[in-house]
Specification:
Blueprint lengths: L27 H6 L47 H12 L7 H8 L1 H8 L9 H9 L7 H27 L6 H38 L3 H13 L9 H13 L7 H10 L1 H6 L19 H5 L17 H10 L9 H10 L3 E2 L8 E2 L9 E3 L2 E3 L5 H12 L1 H15 L6 H10 L1
Antiparallel strand pairs: 1-2, 3-4
């Protein structure tokens, strides 16, 4: 099904109208927006000439969020050129390193912003490239990670069962059985150690990118969108999927169009698992999966055509998709809309193979749906695309996303005129 996109690049909402090419902008609005905070705000660091030299690491005070609430009665003081450079480095990066101030001042604020909007035009720090290359997990297929995680969980259960049998019937167990149990336990401990190593690998990669990447605006936007489309490393499969989620769904779309990142997060197994859409099915539909698939390993009693349980609606993702990801809590939807969107999303679940979620037609609700007055005719997987298109174009989504971006980059209470302009550009 052909996709229609909300026609805007996300960061450029702060920059003004597009002029033809995807990243062509006028930068006047951004220069104004990042200057809205008072020059006396403590979020502004002094220029290098005004104090002692900094350490090589980025400063903790330089963060991409305002610490000062603006009111109409508090008009911002005009900034000089040095203050604008510092403000840009505070808002569009994770903090300035030695030499950044002089480099941005020499090239100019507008030129710096323009280059940051084109991250591929910026040569990456070799330290970052090396770390990313070594982080093997973030390049894996989701289905493979799910299979490995579930096999490890099954082995864990088997070890516990064997250990329980040995403990309860010690006199009846042979030395050979005890040795096998000990070996299995050791193998399990090795796998658990591997998971800890994986977590450390992911955290280190994120930290190195934030501190050392030359593509700082991209890293700031990855942080923004990851928090917007949040999942948790503490929930089951997402312990191993969180790295590929950022790498495959968030990062490639961090400076792109909202509709793209909305779709990528919707179809990623990490989100489908986190918000339980992998369990969302038309009431009474069979919950079978292809034998040997990642999904069947997640549900070993429901594999193939021998389903042990019939499906039912799960509204968790549908509700969060509207409340958090698109329309906002005051976006005008009702519980009926949540129910209808959940019906649209039935059948979208964990994959048999590859990177992305899989649509199971036998689990999909084939009836007509109406979401916020918009009629969606039964068309299987095409309904999901139609719903995402509709939600991405909705005026409530424009305001919700615009406010979030302005709050992140400009002020805790961003000027209404700025948010309105951004929503109109949306």
């Amino acid at each position: 099904m052909k996709r229609e996109y909300a026609d805007f690049p996300t960061v450029q909402l702060l920059l003004g109208p597009l002029s033809g090419t995807r990243l062509a902008t006028t930068l006047t609005t951004m220069t104004l927006a990042i200057s809205l905070a008072s020059s006396s705000s403590q979020a502004l660091a002094a220029s290098p000439a005004a104090g002692p030299a900094r350490t090589p690491s980025r400063t903790q005070t330089a963060v991409p969020a305002s610490t000062q609430t603006l009111t109409p009665a508090l008009a911002p003081k005009p900034m000089n050129s040095d203050q604008k450079v510092v403000q840009v480095l505070n808002r569009l990066t994770f903090g300035a390193k030695p030499g950044d101030f002089d480099r941005v001042k020499a090239m100019g604020v507008k030129a710096y912003i323009s280059s940051q909007l084109n991250p591929r035009s910026i040569a990456e720090n070799p330290v970052v490239d090396s770390q990313v290359a070594s982080a093997e997990l973030i390049h894996r297929k989701s289905a493979d990670l799910i299979k490995e995680f579930r096999l490890m969980a099954a082995q864990n259960n088997a070890v516990r069962k064997t250990a329980s049998n040995i403990s309860g019937n010690a006199k009846e167990q042979s030395n050979e059985s005890e040795k096998e149990a000990a070996a299995a336990k050791e193998e399990l401990e090795q796998k658990q150690k591997h998971i800890r190593v994986v977590s450390d690998q992911l955290f280190k990669t994120r930290l190195v990118r934030a501190l050392d990447s030359e593509r700082q605006l991209q890293e700031v936007m990855v942080d923004f969108w990851y928090n917007h489309f949040n999942i948790s490393i503490n929930k089951g499969l997402d312990h191993v999927l969180i790295g590929v989620y950022e790498e495959q769904a968030i990062r490639p779309n961090a400076l792109g169009r909202f509709r793209d990142i909305l779709g990528a997060t919707c179809y990623h197994p990490a989100m489908l698992f986190y918000l339980d859409n992998w369990q969302n099915a038309a009431p009474g539909s069979p919950m079978g999966y292809p034998p040997g698939s990642a999904a069947s390993l997640n549900n070993p009693n429901k594999a193939s055509g021998q389903a042990k349980k019939t499906g039912g609606l799960n509204e968790n993702y549908a509700r969060e998709l509207m409340e958090l990801h698109t329309l906002g809590v005051d976006g005008g939807y009702t519980q009926k809309d949540v129910n209808e969107l959940a019906r649209v999303l039935t059948g979208l679940s964990l994959p048999s193979k590859g990177y992305w979620g899989q649509f199971y037609p036998g689990r999909h609700d084939q009836g007509e749906k109406i979401v916020l007055g918009h009629k969606i005719t039964a068309s299987g997987a095409g309904e999901i695309e139609e719903a995402l298109d509709f939600l991405a174009r909705h005026p409530s989504t424009a305001h919700h996303i615009s406010f979030a971006l302005a709050q992140y980059f400009v002020a805790d209470q961003p000027p209404k005129a700025l948010v309105d302009r951004m929503a109109k550009r949306f």
